[in-house]
Design a protein that fits this description.
Helix content is about 85%, strand content about 0%. It is mostly helical and about 140 residues long.
């Protein structure tokens, strides 16, 4: 189980990312050139900002547990909840944006499947981290 070994959680995450990327790439090939251009234009700054936000959240957590080790478990729980909340919000906004672009339904379904696989992988890592933090 991923909760017993953090390395297993990380391996599952990487496998989930690879599977998710394969699904995403296959679905992108089904879009027209016009749809691809609209998608790229619409999300160009969005992806960078989202990545920076999540990375910043991770850095704040890492620094906080380094300097406040007595709060390690509480800070980790707060980080997990914050990370999931921000990730879910980003996903919902992305979904709404795709719907607004009138992208094909098959592409949007592939996006949602890819996202679900990624969340599964991230969940495995978080379970690993939380179990290790509780021990």
């Amino acid at each position: 189980m991923a909760g017993q070994d953090p390395l297993l959680g990380i391996v599952i995450l990487f496998a989930a990312i690879v599977i998710s990327r394969v699904i995403s790439e296959k679905s992108l090939k089904q879009l027209s050139s016009d749809d691809k251009a609209r998608l790229l234009d619409s999300f160009s700054n969005y992806r960078m900002a989202n990545s920076a936000l999540l990375l910043g959240l991770g850095i704040v957590w890492f620094v906080a547990i380094k300097y406040l080790p007595q709060w390690h478990y509480t800070l980790t729980a707060i980080f997990v909840v914050s990370f999931l909340g921000v990730s879910i919000l980003i996903s919902l906004l992305s979904y709404r944006k795709m719907k607004g672009l009138n992208l094909p339904e098959n592409y949007i379904k592939s996006y949602l499947l890819s996202l679900a696989i990624q969340y599964f992988g991230v969940g495995c890592v978080f379970v690993s981290v939380l179990v290790q933090a509780a021990s």
